[in-house]
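Retro notes
What went well: the complex prediction finally ran end to end.
Inputs used:
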Amino acid sequence: MSLLDRYIHEVGRFLPRKKRGSIQAELRSTMVDALEDRYGTEANQDQVEEILLEFGKPRDVAASYHPRGQYLVGPGLFPLFQMVAWIVVAAVLGAQLLAFGVGVFIAGEPFSALETLAALVSSVPASLGWVLITFMILQYFDAKPYLDEETWDPKSLPEINPEERLKKGELILGLVGGILILVLVTLFPQWVGFVTTPGGAFYPNPIILEYLVLIQVSLLATILMNIYLLWKGNWTFLTRVIKLGLDAFGVVILGFLIQGHNAWLAVKGQSSFDAWISSIESNNWELVGMHAFRLAFVVAFVVTVIEIFVTIYRMARSKMTSDVSAKDFVLKVE
Amino acid sequence: MMMINADYEQYQKLTQELRRGILVLAALSQLEEEKYGYSLISSLAEKGLDIEQGTLYPLLRRLEEQGLLNSEWNTEGSRPRRYYQINSEGSQVLGDLTREWRNLTDVMEKLLAGSSS
């Protein structure tokens, strides 16, 4: 087989199948034209090589026939791809650690550092692979990450206001944590409680189970809001209002949970702080755990109330124009 | 002064970038009569514009996909050749690009007249 045939065959390896035959035929025709024009009909091996060098590497020649460029995820989708990839990696690692924790501490499975490490190492590339495949499909169909790109209006550029800047790391952490807790309470509601020693007695928390649906709704709404915030990249009046609503909803649920724990402890005649101390001394782990849960919910209640005030303060400080907020509401309604 | 100090490769890249912008106009301008790839390269070279073969052929296909050129295989000669010719839409684009090019050269002449003095 001649050098020319080998070259054209090699170019064809990197061409899309649909156009391969036609491009190869045209390439052959023009290369022979070039050879004949320069050296006549009897070109020798060196002369053919010279022409091939002029055309360039087969891979480069083939690449020039790809109108969209050769990439799996293009520049338009890449920032979104990067963000999703980080979230997925964090969520997968968190889920693995959660499953490992549940297995060892609740189900009493033997601890194997090697197996845990192997699971972590294999799950990350697998999940990243799925993210990549999803984005490759989006790229193939030329999906646009921003729907309002065509009707972009310079006046819609957000004000430069440090108050409205998102703390991305904090959001991603909250997102991953929220997903993990939602997965835990949805898939393993029987394991919502506490355990004293690995594989030891497990005490379910009946109050959490009682308000499980409300907790799931709150977590899901917060996760969706965090995803929306990451997508938009900054706070707006609308997102702050939604956050305020979600925090208020959280406060109500926390109130129910604290009330429920109070009632549960009162039935046992153990609702005071002194009773907690004495339950620790007497190794009554069920009481110790319920007291600890109540304390944690009280702390969460206080923190959420503070957050509500901080959000209101920031809203008051934010310089907002009525047309921007109106536009947000219109977008939401659409 | 800057040209003297500029790295040769960098200069080559800049020149390529500059020339890339005119290739569409150059190719369209020569395709009133149908031509096959190599004859177009020769025609452009004769008039002083050397285009790399690896650049021109994909460009012709893109212009055809964009609906500015028509093409057909001709098997009558010594070997099959793909002939390209500008169509009515291409002619309209050629007219628009030509006007734009003339405006640009006028502006650039003025700009460069100021900088070279």
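What we learned: Confidence is low (pLDDT under 50) at residues 321-326, 329-334 of chain A.
What to try next: split runs per interface for comparison.
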